[in-house]
Phospholipid/cholesterol/gamma-HCH transport system ATP-binding protein (Pseudonocardia kunmingensis), 382 residues
Amino acid sequence: MTGVEVKVEGLSKSFGRANIWSDVTLTLPPGEVSVLLGPSGTGKSVFLKTLIGLLKPERGSIVIHDTDLVRCSEARLYELRKLFGVLFQDGALFGSMTLFDNIAFPLREHTSKSESEIRDIVDEKMALVGLTGDERKLPGEISGGMRKRAGLARALVLDPEIVLFDEPDSGLDPVRTAYLNQLIIDLNAQTDATFLIVTHDINTAQTVPDNIGMLYRKHLAMFGPREVLLTSEEPVVAQFLNGRRQGPIGMSEEKDTAQAAREMEEAGELEGLPPLKPQLQPSPGVGERRAVARRRDRVLQMLHTLPPAAQQAIRESYEDDPLPYEPPTGPIRQPGLPPKRTAGMGFAAPGATDVIEGYDPGYDATPSVRPSPSSRPRWRRR
């Protein structure tokens, strides 16, 4: 399987009069790993359910393979859902079925494969997630981590082009979460599928993704290369990444500006962002992630549009891998999109257009035109 681009434009979702989020626009690059962060109750899981068509948005579009999932027929939506694999928070396994039958269920439900073919596929997926030999166990007989891996094997059994992870670290201790994070990277290297992870785990957000988005105040405050959020000086980012009480995020809802300012003044000097950690690499023998080269070209094309701290972090990440050409200097916008109205660094008052100044939260999907090696100018590091 090979990853596919997912293009979301102006998506809005409400339940009755309660607005969950509005005007969400982002593009999941094909084959890359993206993470969606945000305070509890901001609608991250709702976003995943909307992506696969389980919930219908009031406005916007979700385009995959030139088809808008919001407006297509039920028959077409049924077919497109087969492109998705979903790992739910609790694994969502059938308690009365063995692990083998749980993982085989989508194949028996959606294909006409013979039992011998199903066995070969299930054995392959169980080996991928390290569950060989556990085929006859019931979900109640295994640990939470094993249930997560069984759910992941089931999510992969139809060879999806897009895999969604709804808080995969939920209920796991830090050690098992670290193992699961490594497994996600290894699976991405082996499948080249497009991954989107909803998580609250800061270590996962710091070490796993190529791209990070953040839902805040009913909007997508930012989405783009991981370095943008992980180097942002915004108070909500620093509060979230440090897991501290002082800042704009409250227990039940966002605090008003005056309350947040009082708390920050009372607290005095607080530490800034955690140190930028290196991204996880595939385990030895797994092979390289094909998305790495694609991301590198894409990020370098948009480098001049990113905040200075993010630019510096990207430069440092390529210190041992010289940049092949001079990054462009003109503005980059997605074709057909109007210029965006910015509001500071993306965390404006509710209702404002939440984007980083000078930074487009989408990406330019146009392949870069690269000169021949002999004529390539070298990018001069400062």
User: Anything to note?
Assistant: Confidence is low (pLDDT under 50) at residues 331-382. The chain is about 35% helix and 15% strand. The chain has one domain: 6-321+331-364.
